[in-house]
Amino acid sequence: MTILTIGLLLPLLGTMIGSAFVFFMKEEMSVRLQKSLLGFASGVMVAASVWSLLIPAMEMETGSGKWAVLPAAIGFLMGMGFLLLIDELTPHLHIGTNQPEGMRSHLSRTAMLALAVTIHNLPEGMAVGVVFAGADSGTSSISLASAVAVSLGIAIQNVPEGAIISMPMRAAGNGRWRSFLIGSLSGAVEPLGAVAVLMLASMLTPALPYLLTFAAGAMFYVVIEELIPEASSGEHSNLSTIGFAIGFVLMMVLDVAMG
What we know:
By secondary structure, the protein is mainly α. The chain is built from 9 helices and no strands. Helix content is about 75%, strand content about 0%.
């Protein structure tokens, strides 16, 4: 296996490992643990967006003087807008709620829960694809080691996410294998999204700064729209804040140490 193949598949592996928790945990995940893990995932995604996507994109445009920030701003807003559009159009149901979002549909509760997670995972796949494209292009400050660091960081935060998906599926009445498969398949969009963005970026190298920040905007949307509200709902707790700090520092250290 090449480093590229490993890098593209690592996030999916993380999701599968987390989804497998359904075989070892008899009860539904505690609210305190879920808040901590949601905070951790938020921290990883924000750090990856800043250190591995936004900053390298602006560094690629340093020759543009004060306008170097323009591609980053445009790409970021486009990424946020893209996820907002998908969120509005796709019928989905967030874990812990009974009110579907998106267009009206006759999909089952399980299907809508899976779609919600798929929307969440798409930006992460895009981020992995675009950082590997940046490393391959030779025109950015992104090294291959830095790209692997992003993939590894997202894989680490996908482990608790996989558990957060499969455990409620089990609690909703699905069998263990079905819960595991749904949780695992929700992560399949990541390598698919990564390959699609990688191919697009290789054909449109001048657009790489826009693609990098597009992925950052999409990830920020998920953090702001889904992860932080879910981590902050219910009884007040500082666990999500502590989880965020740990996730952010871990991703920052991975990026700097391996980049």
